[in-house]
Amino acid sequence: MPIVRVLDAREIGADAERLRAWARAESTAREASHVSRSYCHPYAVVAWHNAPLGVDLVRIAPCDARFAQLICTPDERVDAARAADRDAHLSALWAGKEALAKALGRPLDYEPGRLTAPLAWPGGTSGPWRARPCAVPEGHVAWLVWREVTDPRRRGATVRERSEDRRAVAGRGAPGA
Q1: Torsion sign across C-alpha atoms 88, 91, 95, 97
Q2: What is the pLDDT of residues 72-108, one digit of tens each?
C-alpha cells in the first residue's frame, strides 16, 4: 500500500513556492521507485510506493455544466445530477481521474471524459489498479490511485491483468471502462 502524507504550509509559514519545495524534499527523502505530488495551497499531498501511482488534491469549488460535460462519462453525469453535493461529487471525480492519469503515466494523454473515475470502481479496484480517497482538510478532496504490486513468480499475476494495463496505458481503454 502506498504511503501518503498531507502537508500544511501554515505549519511552517510557507508560501506556495516553499510548500512545493517542502513536498519535493519530502518525496526525495523516501526510498521509493515512484512518487506523486499534488498541490492546492496551503496543502500538498505526497505519496510514494514501489509501483506506479498518482495522487491529486483539489479544492471543492462550484462546478458548472460545461465542466461536468468535459470530465464525466455519460453514467457519471447521471450520478453527479443525483448527488447530494454536486460540486463535491464533481471535484472528487476530477481528483480521481487526475490521480489515475498520473498513475498511468503521461497524464496529458488522457481525456477525462473517457476515463471511468475511481470513485465508481467496485471496492476501489479495476484490474491491477487500486484507488482510495485520501483524508484531507475540509473543503478539499484527494484521491490516490496505484498499481497493485504483483510478482508473477510468487503471487500469480495474471496475463489478463498485464494486458489490461497495457491497453489502458496505450489509450485503447481505461481501467474501469
Answers
A1: positive
A2: 999 999 999 999 999 999 999 999 999 999 999 988 8
Give the tens place of pLDDT for each residue, 139-161.
999 999 999 977 655 444 433 44
**By the 8 A CB rule, do 120 and 176 touch?**
yes
For the entire predicted model, the pTM comes to: 0.82
d(CA 49, CA 35): 7
Grid coordinates of 120: 465508481
Phi-psi region of 122 (alpha: psi -120 to 50; beta: other; left: phi over 0): beta
Q: What are phi and psi of 28, to 5 degrees?
A: -80, -15
CATH code of the domain covering residue 93: 3.90.470.20
Is residue 31 assigned to a domain? no
Q: How many domains does the chain have?
A: 1
Domain hosting residue 96, numbered range: 52-170
